[in-house]
Amino acid sequence: MFEVEEKTRVDAIDRTLYDFKDKLDPALIVDSGLTEDVVRQISKEKNDPEWMTEFRLKSLKTYNELDIPNWGPPIDGLDMDNIVTYVRPKGEMSAKWEEVPEDIKNTFEKLGIPQSERLSLAGVGAQYDSEIVYHNVRKEVAAQGVVYTDIESALKGDMADMVRSHFMKLIPPSEHKFAALHGAVWSGGSFVYVPKGVSVEIPLQSYFRLNAPGAGQFEHTLIIVEDDAYLHFIEGCSAPKYNIANLHAGCVEIYIGKNSRVRYSTIENWSKNMYNLNSKRALVEEGGTIEWVSGSFGSHTSYLYPMSILKGDNSRMEYTGITFAGEGQELDTGAKVVHMGRNTSSHITTKSISRDGGKSNFRSEVSIRHEAENSKSAVTCESLMLDDQSRSDTIPVSDIRNSKVDIGHEAKIGRISEDSIFYLMSRGLSEDDAKALIVGGFAEPIAKELPVEYAVEMNNLINLEMKGSIG
Amino acid sequence: MSYRINTIPMPTWNHLKVNHAPDVFERNADRSGKIGSYIVSSVFEDMISGAGAEFDSDVKANVSVIRTRSVAAKSGNNTFVSEYKEGVIRECVEVFEGAEAELVQIIESDNAEKLDLLTQVYAHKNSKVKLYLLNLSGIGSDARSGVAIKTEENAEVEVVRVAIGSLHALYGIRSDLVGDNSHCNITTAYLADNDEVLDMNDSSIFYGKETFSEIKAIGLLSGRAYKTLRETVDFRRGCVHAIGHEGEDTVMLSDDVRNITTPLILCGEEWVEGMHAATTTRLDDDMLFYLQSRGIPIRDAKRLIIESRFSPVIDMISNEDIKNRVMKSIGERLDALSEL
User: pTM of the predicted model, to two decimals?
Assistant: First the structure.
């Protein structure tokens, strides 16, 4: 006989904050589908340099040659013939919110972006559909030589050579089908350059909002941090829900110089009709550090695995992520790390919660190359299943080619330990309080890594209502 | 061979080359020496080994030796020892309610010999089965072994695998824990050296309530060995209070080794506990230093540490003669180890 215990109810994420729609009123919208004509039209509209036009067309060819991934969640509902790859909003990019078209400005006001900028950010980029509509950086930060601008401006300005020598070099279009798609139709995104020895003490943030139904967003973020520098970059994204598929296939490339540190925080709140097929990669030189902090809450289907290449000796990587998969969602997330340098270290910590039939997959790769002597890696993933309609799968892989290493991996799926509840009750807590403490503590290691306003938001998103034991 | 073998139930990135075994394990589609038609108990028909349904079909179609064992409660000597060198073998073991059986399979192939072995174990209610799969082959041989296990209520199956032989060695064990409160543990000691390819795919699928499985492996890799270990615990909906543990502890002696591990936990039921823990390290420097400080030469010290790592697995072999034979084989392999 098995007792049926009363369960903790964990509410679904409240999406009302993000689920408002603006009337579709673009300045330009290309035909749906992916053809050479569409790619040429995008390139012309964006006034690309010639090499970029060629790059796009070559990427399109690669896209047509590559197969859909055969290992991840199904993406049958995504039909590229029905996806609009470029939607230009009205207005030009501005460094003043008052110059942003009223409806778009209101959207970002509702999302709290200007308020955050005033309170706690060194610079903000805001993208609406396919183009950046607002970009600004504090004068004192710019005075340090920090460049934070939309990538189109960087592509044509003083940074043009740097952009050209780094653009899609870490994630080449041949990497996978959706990297090739990105190479063909990318638009928008941010460029960050931090000079040697400069520490950007306050975070920069780019926010991506996709409003158009049936559209794709393909922003490109390129971050170059020279030696002995520091940057915290925050990425936020959201969209209202439609009855047709939307697509996000962004690309983030981060170059981290010697002894530099970059923290890249993401809160992903796409709507549940979104296919989020994003690519992120960092190259870390000697003594450098990349820290990924990732919260995945939205999307219909996600493929998201930030990759770190620890090229330099003594370089480090940390990945801290939480995934919350609810009804109708399959969120396939995780991280990859390649240890190339000596004395490199990586630490991957993830938590996932699945409820109401949601599917949460954790996938990881730890590769220790032949030369990576004295490297260390630790992977820890924990999953909570909140009902028997949901799924939670972990698929970690380690590939080790050096004997002088210390590699550890731990995974755990299950319910909350009754022993823990008993212990807390023996210390004077009520049963409900004990359970609330344990469940609340599950996400806490991730929340404490987030910027404070996002941590508060996350705690609001995961509204834990304690009743009896967690199942 | 037109099919894939040792595939994992949920594939991952293709560039990692872990989704199935490499091509070195291919065989000719049609092999000589096969026997004509034969009949086995229907309980074996829908069982699938860890090597995969296509491997099983291949063996069934090309089988050169078939062995069936039926063990009833209160029967006499229930220990079966089989020695294999080459060929296509199918061994079916049905252990009836309340019975106990020990099955020992010793693979001792010579150079260039090839063996395909499909083992199917059906454990009825309250039965207990021990399966010892011991590959002590010469290092030029080639072995593929698929094991399928199905457990009824309260049945217990213990698999002990010693994988220290063959140039190309492939093992796939799958246990279907159908009956409530049934158990299956898979414990492995492996050693691969030189250019050996060792490919393992072990899984436990939990259907019954309060089922339990522990899959653990202790290994040593040297030379240019290429080892892949896939472990899966798969909790199906309804297997409430099931527990599945996976673990691996590997020591690498060489920087030319390739050591791939893929421990999967697949979970479609909330009331379960699934855990995995794996470590890959070098030989413990402190322990080596201590042993040397006691006057033990470094090679002997290394050997002592390695043998002590394997001993918990070897000690699980109840038959002293067979245990001594296994220890002798391990000793010979360690004598010839390229990196010690």
Answer: 0.92
